[in-house]
# Entry
Amino acid sequence: MIEPSLRGDRGQTLPLYIWLTAILLFAAFAFFAFAQAASARNGAQSAADAAALAAAQDARDELMTGLQGAIGHDDNWLSWLNGSRFQGAGVAAAAERLADANRATLRGGPDREDVNGFPGYHVTIETRYTVGSSIIPGTENRHATAEATAVIQPRCTFGSNADPKKPVQLDCGGDLIDINPGDFNSDDLPDASVLFSVHLAE
# Structure
């Protein structure tokens, strides 16, 4: 009498086991799909950040070149230190180069925009790779997109009575830089990062 009952219990348990296994497999595939999507989004954001920073850094290099040429020749050379006197001639190429290095394509920008009064560049990118095949239909053809803005922030201040024709002391975040327009050499300027910081907008 006991053996038929045990066989009956086994027969009832098997469908339940199959059903639970199917649910667990579906959950695992769904988790994998979401992990794929998150990975693609993270990759896209990294590419956008890199492209925006490249654009802003290229503009900073242009600022440094302009400042070097202005000191001793332009009575308004101090205005270069506010970070806005650049044309951004090479920013597009710089942004495209970094986007490409991160397997992405520049879809928008770099566009000039102000962030809290500071100049910056905004970009939009699209990954060249897709999210990948998953249980969610269409992901095999879906590319990730992301946006980022990088800001150029001046770090130097000087006295309100500073005369651009005379020696000027710059306070760049605690670093004191002495500039004599009458006896200036490009080596008198510190690294660009001392005069202007470049960072992603929050």
Observations:
- The beta strands are 104-115, 118-130, 143-154, 156-157, 168-172, 175-179, 196-200.
- The two ends are 74 Å apart (CA to CA).
